[in-house]
Batch of 3 targets.
Target 1
Amino acid sequence: MKYAVKIEVSLKPGHSNPEGETTARLLVELGFSVEAVEVSKVYKVVLEASSMVEAEQKAQEMSSRLLVNPTKDDYTISVAERK
Amino acid sequence: MKYAVKIEVSLKPGHSNPEGETTARLLVELGFSVEAVEVSKVYKVVLEASSMVEAEQKAQEMSSRLLVNPTKDDYTISVAERK
């Protein structure tokens, strides 16, 4: 069965966030009352698995082997059956 | 009042998606049964506004003036009161 897993990768609090800081500065220069910007990345992966539990396990393994840097990143995983 | 707006920017269908294609290829090389990967970016912006409607309007304006390329990007906006 096919599943769509969504892996959202964000910076851990306290880690340098140059893209967010630059974006915040640009928005302020454009006149917006912005206090802070955080930037995260979302991977939507369509994969083959025998169950939702297996799809979630595969997403965990993809995260730790490729998509996430455990030193600086937090991440969340959600799984849905592929329509 | 402070609001947290979330702007998710993804590529329109049919547009070249080199980061997703590279990620998919690497995951397949690692042994995963992956069909496709889409990569999108999420901006979480904390801003000052007088109402939720105004916060959403500001997020629309930020998107069109800085964060989104209308030729190739789709985007969604959600707004929450800042805890």
Note: The CA atoms of residues 7 and 63 of chain A lie 8 Å apart.
Target 2
Amino acid sequence: MPIAAVAKESEVDVLIIGAGPAGVMCANALAMAGVNVRIIDQRPAKVAAGQADGIQPRTIEVLQSYGLAERLLREGNQMHMAAFYNPSPSGGIERTSRAPDVTAPSARYPFEVTLHQGAIEAIFLDSMSAHGVIVERPIVPTYIELSQSEEELKDPNAHPVILKHLDPSEREGDSEIVKAKFVVGADGAHSWVRKSLGISMDGEQTDYIWGVVDMVPDTDFPDIRCKCAVHSNNGSCMIIPREGDLVRLYIQLSDRDVVDPATGRVDKSKMGPEKLLAVAQKSFKPFEISTSGQIDWWTLYIIGQRVASKFSVRERVFIAGDACHTHSPKAGQGMNASMNDTHNLAWKLTHVLRGWSDLSLLQTYEFERRKYAQDLIDFDKKFSKLFSGKPRTQDNQDGVSHEEFLGAFQTFGLFTSGIGVHYEPSAITHNQHQSCASTLIVGERMVPHVFVRAADARPYDIQDLLPSDTRFKILVFVGDVANTTQAERVLRLAEEMGGQESFYRKFGHGNPSKVFDILSIASAKKQDVNYTDLPPLFRQHWSKVLLDDTDMYSRVGGGGYARYGIDQQHGAIVVVRPDGYVGIVAPFDHLKDVNTYFDSFMAQS
Amino acid sequence: MPIAAVAKESEVDVLIIGAGPAGVMCANALAMAGVNVRIIDQRPAKVAAGQADGIQPRTIEVLQSYGLAERLLREGNQMHMAAFYNPSPSGGIERTSRAPDVTAPSARYPFEVTLHQGAIEAIFLDSMSAHGVIVERPIVPTYIELSQSEEELKDPNAHPVILKHLDPSEREGDSEIVKAKFVVGADGAHSWVRKSLGISMDGEQTDYIWGVVDMVPDTDFPDIRCKCAVHSNNGSCMIIPREGDLVRLYIQLSDRDVVDPATGRVDKSKMGPEKLLAVAQKSFKPFEISTSGQIDWWTLYIIGQRVASKFSVRERVFIAGDACHTHSPKAGQGMNASMNDTHNLAWKLTHVLRGWSDLSLLQTYEFERRKYAQDLIDFDKKFSKLFSGKPRTQDNQDGVSHEEFLGAFQTFGLFTSGIGVHYEPSAITHNQHQSCASTLIVGERMVPHVFVRAADARPYDIQDLLPSDTRFKILVFVGDVANTTQAERVLRLAEEMGGQESFYRKFGHGNPSKVFDILSIASAKKQDVNYTDLPPLFRQHWSKVLLDDTDMYSRVGGGGYARYGIDQQHGAIVVVRPDGYVGIVAPFDHLKDVNTYFDSFMAQS
């Protein structure tokens, strides 16, 4: 490739290819962190309708950590209730039961939000733009090359990725060479980045063919505003209510509906939105469903269940989102898995770029997210099979029973909600002291709970004090500071943590409160404690001291130590990663293990 | 006055004079309702710092009803806890107790929000601007005249108010004559409108002189982020924590600090922010308080306690806010009373302008708000006296005891929070059937409570379904619709309410859902009820049916019928006014009294 012929050349720290959910999550996180980042997309405009639309409970927590959940909750629909319909003895379908849509007891937002992908992406685009980053489009990448120099690859300040791209509206000569420290390929299921780097997708395509229609329905179906799994003897449907009065239907199709017998391939021209709706109408009987409006969006798909063999090349080029995993949309995981991929990656890139962490930190991205993607495919296989299977009836005793389906729906709830995502031990998750905070599982997200601020008794969910601001949060559960022995232990801990040998100074790069945010949480009551009672390191601002107590009106709060499995007398140290996952928990007398934790991936200035 | 010499002339439905809290609340409410409104202010720019800053619990509910509370809560500080300091036996002060800042158990937001007046006004200005209304400034009104023609005054379509004003940046010849249907004088304590119309202020000035400073303090005082009443033997102070790290101090002054002995008047030049702080420092001992930053704002004031003798002239010109009541700022009532004045007035003007109600409806503004203002002054007299009094000590047995002060603080809580505001019976508050919803007091604001939507089990605070959208809300508590006798009663009620004789048709102006919003609330459980079970009038959209049940996770909701004192079997009808106050409650078999209610002030098309 004659790249020397091209005039324009530039350098950037991170180049993101693709402005879908994974790309915009990444770009926004990096923009908020002040990283030198660009994002390009080959589509001329953002998505207007259709596509993915479900935001899971954990993803809402993640959006909230970037200050973006408020708008999502204002614009989106909430699914709280699920309903299950099965063949009725008198023909047609009937409701078998209703159940909570989310079965993850610790979810802060115990529901799913549905909103079309364009509106969700707009939340990120507006936030990025407030931080000075906009998507450059339409820009088509045409060439990528990774340096072969080991020296360059090991130098965090080098720009070992060369990428050529072009603006299709310009002449070829106006294309650009970008030298990047890091490239993130968030360019979808047909990822150009993945193919260019020769990364294979492992897995296979299923036989399940589904259609999707978005519309405002006219119906007498009483659960049209719930998530519904409809299993009839005339096919299966899934209902996903959306923003406003919109409803999405997933409709199971048979080969004869859509497959061209000559080629054996899906022929979209054999199907249309009216035909799709006609298929759905058969499974809804005796209920009527139609629309007096337009079909907002429709598509067909065959479920593929694949995971990329690698998520990164030399920790310089990464792939994320649909580029590294494809699966069925019906469990509403796609957009969530994608966003959480780059939520996991962005802080790691930032730390490396700032010189706070070694390049090796970036290995944990593939380690954590590929394992998750594999779990997701395993789940999807089981769920798709159950969902696409025929219902068990008098005449079909081999079919899927309602109990079996509901059981799976609820068992999988912790996984599908995103709440149960668990990262295995690595450089950034050390679980040797798990017992001192027995229910704050290392490798899982910090459990939300309401505490009150000592200075003003204002209640806060602790998650709101753990924003995605790239800092590690050091939560010092100081125990019962009214007890003088404990008060002395707290003083000693503050001295030790503030000392030269401690991670706080060692990796503080001269201004430790930029790298670490210390919060202290006492088990004592608001009537008795002054925030001024704590040592200065543990109250660097009046807002940094919390109490495990109710608010003034006993409406919220209290019981946090018990919920977290932390001893109310002696407390514990809890380190929360910048992405909100617990990194290590330790008793006061094992601060050295917290030092070791940071030693294992952080860099000194 | 030679008005004939002026060239520019215009007509407007409502002209608001003054863009303080009362003015912008009024302008925004009218703008949202699509009323032809203008608002002028003589100040060249909006307030940047200082001034009033406390938003009471009821006012937060009101802002929420206009969709404005989210931003207020994001930007403002919250006061949850109050602390009381009194003379210590060892000299100086000590904390006597902490208590909830708000003592109004039904408050939806059980705290006060503090934020500087400019930021609060900006919330309204941005909302108004989104509805196409901006403040015209600087514009100085110079002449006002009300028509003497009874015919004109009684014609709702006439423009009987003539007002001349001018843009001081233009030549006199460029001033304008505005003919208005209605004028609202929200032009402050020295109201030009009030004076021009010769309305007197009844009441007197007190002897209490106070200073105010806003600053970011350096202090070891442990309750600096709480509302504090500090009574020392060296004077009294009140602490109001503000947004960010700002704190406001109210400091009691003695005559010798500020009064010019020659004239007997307050001489602001004798005092300055440093001197004020020095007075405060004496009462804080043994705690230290100072600032390393700037004094953000300061002022001095003498409490005047006065109410205007009239709030309106012929229901064509109204005065609102500080123009009709002045009192001490320390109970944080000023801005709240002002905003609630025009919140009360705006929907009434709208209804009259739309031809939905008779002009007589406007009489209820003075009736309701003047009574409230008088109650406010009565409260203020008691509270100021207690606050400004010397504390009771060994040496001063006549002083105010802590118990006396705390008791008053809590007794007055219902009033100061705004939650207890009670409008007496009038054309728009009929209380003859109070017993059928015994705790939804007619003339008080609708009590917040969480219900779940039948269609999707999403929980909603009922207040969020009662927005300030100018419609009367008809809440049909349909009782236990699973019971067939009750289901029949509900059907009959729907027939009767939908009939030609009913208020719904009679005053519906051809499109009753524009005037009335019907919500139905069943006492049955979410597992059992379909929203489709109700008669169409009571479920005009799937979102209009609620259940008195918990959400799917039993975190919120349930017990609403009991809380409202409504029979779970038989239900009741509750009419909520457009401003969120209960207008009438009635049993199903007294729909005729609901008809009579609307007959007493509404107009047929």
Note: Residues 88 and 117 of chain B are 36 Å apart (CA to CA).
Target 3
Amino acid sequence: MQKMKAAIFVEKGRIVLDEKPIPDVGPLDALIRITTTTICGTDVHILKGEYPVEKGLTIGHEPVGIIEKLGSAVEGYAEGQRVIAGAITPSGHSYACLCGCGSQDGAGTKHGFKAMGGWKFGNTIDGCQAEYVLVKDAMANLSPIPDHLTDDQVLMCPDIMSTGFSGAESGGVRIGDTVVVFALGPIGLCAVAGAKLMGATTIIGVDTLASRMEVARKLGADHVIDFKAGDPVEQIMALTDGRGVDVAIEALGTQATFRSALQSLRPGGTLSSLGVYSSDLTIPLGAFSAGLGDNKIVTTLCPGGKERMRRLMEVCASGRVDLKPLVTHRFRLDDIEEAYELFANQRDGVLKVAIQP
Amino acid sequence: MQKMKAAIFVEKGRIVLDEKPIPDVGPLDALIRITTTTICGTDVHILKGEYPVEKGLTIGHEPVGIIEKLGSAVEGYAEGQRVIAGAITPSGHSYACLCGCGSQDGAGTKHGFKAMGGWKFGNTIDGCQAEYVLVKDAMANLSPIPDHLTDDQVLMCPDIMSTGFSGAESGGVRIGDTVVVFALGPIGLCAVAGAKLMGATTIIGVDTLASRMEVARKLGADHVIDFKAGDPVEQIMALTDGRGVDVAIEALGTQATFRSALQSLRPGGTLSSLGVYSSDLTIPLGAFSAGLGDNKIVTTLCPGGKERMRRLMEVCASGRVDLKPLVTHRFRLDDIEEAYELFANQRDGVLKVAIQP
Amino acid sequence: MQKMKAAIFVEKGRIVLDEKPIPDVGPLDALIRITTTTICGTDVHILKGEYPVEKGLTIGHEPVGIIEKLGSAVEGYAEGQRVIAGAITPSGHSYACLCGCGSQDGAGTKHGFKAMGGWKFGNTIDGCQAEYVLVKDAMANLSPIPDHLTDDQVLMCPDIMSTGFSGAESGGVRIGDTVVVFALGPIGLCAVAGAKLMGATTIIGVDTLASRMEVARKLGADHVIDFKAGDPVEQIMALTDGRGVDVAIEALGTQATFRSALQSLRPGGTLSSLGVYSSDLTIPLGAFSAGLGDNKIVTTLCPGGKERMRRLMEVCASGRVDLKPLVTHRFRLDDIEEAYELFANQRDGVLKVAIQP
Amino acid sequence: MQKMKAAIFVEKGRIVLDEKPIPDVGPLDALIRITTTTICGTDVHILKGEYPVEKGLTIGHEPVGIIEKLGSAVEGYAEGQRVIAGAITPSGHSYACLCGCGSQDGAGTKHGFKAMGGWKFGNTIDGCQAEYVLVKDAMANLSPIPDHLTDDQVLMCPDIMSTGFSGAESGGVRIGDTVVVFALGPIGLCAVAGAKLMGATTIIGVDTLASRMEVARKLGADHVIDFKAGDPVEQIMALTDGRGVDVAIEALGTQATFRSALQSLRPGGTLSSLGVYSSDLTIPLGAFSAGLGDNKIVTTLCPGGKERMRRLMEVCASGRVDLKPLVTHRFRLDDIEEAYELFANQRDGVLKVAIQP
């Protein structure tokens, strides 16, 4: 049995590079040799024990690579093809998928829905911070990379772009909208880019790190607000002349940003939530107009599947959005523990790291 | 100056019938002689001082009547015509209205949005528990009653039907959906009827009063659950074989029903909230899948305007929904204080009362 | 190699019952033993040579049956289970499917879209007027029949209900709409039922056969018009007092009904087209307001997949719609040629026939 | 009675500058002193007698100006304010408006819908190629110009931007879409800009004039096709590698472009039509997949109302789209006949002309 290197969750506080068998390929699977991958904020939650996964699991859900081997029932692909797969890998055939809700894929469950069930890599099955990753339901998930795009250019597609853009999409951003994005980490930065891509004409970013605020401006923020310089809701109301925003995107996962997002809305506005929360949330009565404000709160888990990936790579190819500034550091897989150390501590202005076996 | 009788908010705990001048008619207004009106749960909140309005205000927002006098700039109507107007009376010309958000009408404000601004009758201007009511922006709001419909048949249109149905509409109910409605007061009962009207095939009502549960069955509930007979979420999960519902409609305005509604959803489901809350709300982390469940929470304030009223009267005329069982008691305007006493204390199986000057 | 009986297209004018090998089961397939099926108007087009298929093909796309054998990679089903599959069998994993457009499934094609590609049974692969049928992509398509539903109760789900209902769904029927349905064959009758199920309050059916008009009334038509008794557009305008309809559903596939449907619309209305046309269509300039009328023309090919089938069976189980009147005749598979003879000539008031091996 | 200069339709072939009384101001009206306006392709149709209007009518529907006088019932504006109004001026209070269909505004008609009824200026009432124009329903239509925007910057908002953008909006353009725009006149150019603004990543423009093709590239076209250099459908299929486009926008109003647009679509694609047609249209059977291709044909009349105008001016203010290249020539109102002569004959590379009294 051949072995490969993989970043494995050992216990709270420890993700280590170790050896594992290269997985067997079932009829619907594809084995991908990873050429580039990255670390996500969620992986840090796993590292810190804040999000529970099984000990021994390979971490990582953002694969860029080459098809090494195809399952016997997989058609339409060739070994050697460069591909990506989304962080979320819907089966395509569950009731949830056929209901347009593939991120809650419950293939194999009684009713075909499972909360967050589409998120498999580095969560319920081995992930892609490794030399190889097995992609289930390959025909629904492998998306060939256009020849002229580099690994780096598509590295944000599997999760960061898909999640960030969905903040704007689920929020229903329309031409002429005013949009605020709370927290300008990689997801929030992509939410800024997504809001611009959909026609928002006033985009306000909220953070406190100068480097992130600067990237936000490059990606489309018309204004950036430092939440340490004063109550962000007041600053937003000042910027919008008291009107409030049409859509507020929450990209952090805290009570404070959730509340501020709701308070920033104009009557009838939409809070589009992307953050991963770690405790119950409070909806303030006033911002919610006692339930009579025609407000919406929508949540979205990173849309996956090969059509989504194809569209995001089209965005990269078109030059409409340039996410190169997001990849700030580069490591070999052999040095992934060092990469975790840097990324988990948000040192050295890190936004995203590229990891290459 | 001619006088009329009107039910006036005097102070917390006191709504009394007294005399007031019949209002003057501005160029865009219409004066309606009330022939039938009713009392809403919201009026009881006002009575109890739980929802603040100015002392001296005439209460009531569900008018059925006859055009007594038209403003000089009003075209397309005739004095003597039987009409209704919605509880919410959008101006038609504010930015909010032109944005499809008339219930948050902010005509006259700087940006044209005002939270709950479309609700004027018995809230920010004199209402219709009186012999006459003045309707602003008459051309956007007066909806002629088809000849063959009685006052009683259309009495639920201005608020109860419009609000209840909107619970299903905003929830995006589709053919084949499973829907639960929390609380089977008049609004919840209309939400049941609305869910059926939109094609839900399994409708579950939650309450504890046998009389309401019986009406719910008549209006389309396939199952009714007594929340006193066990945890309603468990009962819903049992009825749906563990799947959960596609849409949960909250029609009461309490933390308990809000939480249960959220917990009843299948992954990716929608909580459609109609209730008027009186304190901050808590979103339980688990039911919200930490923000990753693709859930939506949508709130709706009773849609108004004459087109909405026309459509609801079409529903009445078509016989698709029979709301006659909702009018359980009948009073003369002279006896409205007695009607409040009955209604506020939910005595004698009261659902809605008809009040006639 | 075991043999089975099957209704085979031999040449224009001849569909005959003959023997064929029982198909082999690939890893993603399921072999279904047919217990009930039916003949569709499209099959008659094939019989008449108006719609081309390969000689030797087994006809039929409305299967009700029992799982005989499951492919090696199929999970979540058991042999012996009663199931249906839709007339359209999307793969679940093509770009089209993942784009929400499964009826145009192009699995295996370069870009993943193929016009009408989701329609496979009796079109591009062997169909189900046979003792057995092979279902490709079984996990996306097999929908278990609830125990308490008979074959007859679910026989309309695979095509007639799905297509007919989609006329109302794609038309965006809303509560209070006025809808006209042109042609009251099985599809049109289901369009009537679908429009009612979605809240249309005035439904007008157009046909000339008294028996069909009577069934239309049972399924929800408020008015029925005999197009031989006068210009149908004039009759519709008379019934709507000159307003026109919000949604016109074309369920036949002729220039005359297409034109009348367009002419029946109110400004801004939608023509929802279900018919299969056999020649170019003409859009009359006036009814189209020279392109400035905010009109929509939408077409829909029968939605398929197991979630769609599940929802339609929910409708059957709920009793919301009773399609029993549609099955007017019953034949053994051995007598299918006789059934074609009756059905193709629309004799004896036939609407749909049940065929049982 | 004071007089003003106005461009008046005298008879087929003759629009002349003449004197007319300055109109009286009714209670809901506003009198606007025009500071800049322009000529539309539709005005040329009127000039040529291809679109009938009453003799003596003032032409023009794209007003930029200053409030001269407000009606007695108009609130929320001040005389002296700089404003625009849309080419389409919905009343805000008709059934059509309250149904979200203001371009088909039928205020004053029995059912409140009138085909193209929202287009009043230079069609059913006097237009704005004059020193003054009367705006009906002023509160629904006057949109204040932000101080920092010049007349030129907002001159395209009333019609060209609103119509062009709506081609993309009604087409439902999504992130990653491929879009083709047929004909790169001012409307088509704005459709290109609108498609880009909504996230299309491959935009193909079709025309033959090099100057227009160049502007199209500036506004977002990734490819431009010369329809004289070969069948445009074949060129589009070559550019999309045989896939076809998600959305095809028709911006001319001819059978040839309509047909090509339909033929360019991928299965399930949408034809969004903006052109004004002058004869019946033919839908080719093949491109329509015999009615089974899940295709949509949607038409849109320039959305109006002050909220629409506000949003479009936000686009101008944001710098997201720069339409300055569209204004190629400039005339005084006194020379408007000369402007018509240039514009009607498409001389000197004219795209749009600015007319200033």
Note: The interface with chain A takes residues 165, 169, 174-178, 194, 196-199, 201-202, 222, 310-312, 314-315, 317-318, 320 of chain D (CB under 8 Å).
